[in-house]
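Protocol step 4 of 6: structure prediction from sequence.
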Amino acid sequence: MVEVTTLMAQFISKLTLDRVPESIAHEARRFVLDTLGCTIAGSNSELGPIILSVARMLGEGQDASVAGGGKRFTWPSASYGNGRLANCLDLDETYPGGQVAGLHFGASVFGQALSLCEQKNLTSRELILAVICGYEVAGRISDIGTQITAETGKVTPASEIYGFALAPTVGAAAAAGRLLSQDAAMLEQTFGVAASNAATPTGPIWSRQVVLPNSSAFDSGWAAMAGGFAARSVELGSTGLPSIFDGETSIFTMVGAQSVDIDGLIGDMGSRWAFQNIIYKPWPSCRAHHHPICALRKLRAMEHFKLDEIEEIVLGVNLGRLSRRHLNPEPTTFVSRQFSFPHAVAMFLLDVPPGPSWGAERWASDPTVRELRSKIKFTDYPRAATFAQFFVRGQFRQLPCSVEVRFKGKSVRTDVEFAWGDPWLEETRFSDDDIVAKFRRVTNLPIAMADAVVETIMMAELGANLSPVFDAMSLD
C-alpha cells in the first residue's frame, strides 16, 4: 500500500529552492505580493478593526506585525490577524480545485509563513520556499478530486458533507514545518496535528445562508494559526494521529470525500505544481462573478451605453448551482455583498475602485446602487451547466456564461468562458504589471513605500531583508 502521508512529508521536508523551477519561484513572489496587498486592503475595510481586536485578544507582544496594527502581536495573533485580513475582502487568489471546485487557502499559508519569518528574522528566500511548500500541500489536498459529479456533461449536487478548512490548515502547517526545518517524521506528526484540529466541515450550512457571517465560509485566520500551532507543538514534543492521509477512512473521509484521487494527492511531485493553476482576482467578490463582469467589459467596449439608459441586464448562468445569496438584490452585510451578483455588477458599472469600498455599508441604501441591482435578471444558460466536462484533475477551467444588456429599445449580448486572472490563456493571465498595479491600487500606500515592497518581493535577489514589508503593514 502506498504510504501517502509519508511521501508527502518526505517531499516537503527535502524541498529546496534549487529543486523548484524558476517559473514556480517567480509565481510564489507574485502570490506573496498579491496576498500582501489583500491583507493591507483588508485592514482598511469595515472588518479590519474587528479582526485586529480578535488578534489582540489572542495575544499582544513583539513577535510580529499585523496589517494596520503595527508590530504589537505574538506569533499566534499575527498569524490569525493577517490570515483573516488577507481573505476578508474575497480579493485573494482562488485555487480551481477542492470538493466543490473552488477554494481559497493562500491567505492562511501566507499569514502563518509571514508571522514566523518576522519572528525569526528570516528573509525573502525562506518566505518564498515556505509559501511554495504550503501552497503545494494545500493544492494537492484540494486535488483529491472534486466531489461534484457530472451526468451527461451536467453537474449534479455536491455531497451532503463538505468543508473548506482542511487544505488551508494543513497548508499553513506545511509552511511552518518547512520554516522550522522539520524532517519527514516530524512533518508527518505536524500534518496529523493540523488535520485533526482543522475546523468542522460546515459547507452545507454555509451554502444555504443568505445573510452571511463576516468570517465567510471558514475562518482563514484560525486555519493559519492552527497550522502554526501544529508545527510548533510538535517541536515541543506533541504527537498527532499517524498516516492522516492514508487508508479507506482517512481524514478526507471525515470531511465528506466520497472518493479520493491518490494521483491528485501525490502524483508527479516535483513536476506538477499547484502554483501553475493559481487564479488572481481583479474584483473583490466571488470568483463566479468575474465571468459576467468580463462579459460586461466586452459589451461596454462595443456599446458605450449610459447607466440611466439601461433597462435590464440578463445574466445567463447555471441557475441550478446558484443559491439565493448569489441572486440577492438587497445584500445587507459586508460578506453578503461579496456573494451577490447584482451587487458586483452594480459596483463594476459604477466604476467603484476594487477594494474595501466594494462592500461598504453605504451601498446598502444608496438609491443608484439599489436601482442598478434591481435591473439584474437571470436566465438559465445551458452551456453553463456543462462546465464539468472541462475539469482537469477535478479542477475547473471554463465557467461559461452569457450577458445581455437591454437599453434604449435594443440589446447587445456576448458570451465568455474564461475570466481575467485565469492562468490558462495568455490573454486572461495576470501579468507581472497586473499584479503590481493591483497591489498599488488596493493598498494605496505612499509611492516610495510601495516601491520598496515591490522591489523586495518581486525583483531583489532572494535573501532580501523583509523590513520594507513589515513597515508597510505597520502604516496606520
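Step 5 (inspection) to follow. The first strand starts at residue 60 and ends at 66.
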